Here is the input.
Amino acid sequence: MKLEKVVPWGRNLLEYQRMFLLSDDDFQQSILGCGDGPASFNVEARQKGANVTSVDPIYQFNAEQIR
Ligand SMILES: C[S@@+](CC[C@H](N)C(=O)[O-])C[C@H]1O[C@@H](n2cnc3c(N)ncnc32)[C@H](O)[C@@H]1O
Here is the structure.
């Protein structure tokens, strides 16, 4: 199989909670999201008051370039 192009994709907050078994206590800590890419985890968690920092090489590109 040959991929003709790469499509960025990402998980949401609920998927991260299930994937990493994140508890309410975890959200009281600072969270470093490595390779968060286009996931909505950061923005959703921040909207709930969590302190999340995401790092990913894709962030060298702006939103339009990623689209
Ligand atoms: C399939 S996406 C998953 C994104 C997110 N973690 C999620 O679960 O929705 C994989 C991500 O890993 C990032 N990545 C690849 N190599 C990396 C590296 N060396 N360090 C950090 N992130 C990397 C990619 O840029 C991409 O955004």
About this structure: The helical segments are 13-20, 41-47, 63-66. The chain has three helices and two strands. The longest strand covers residues 30-34.
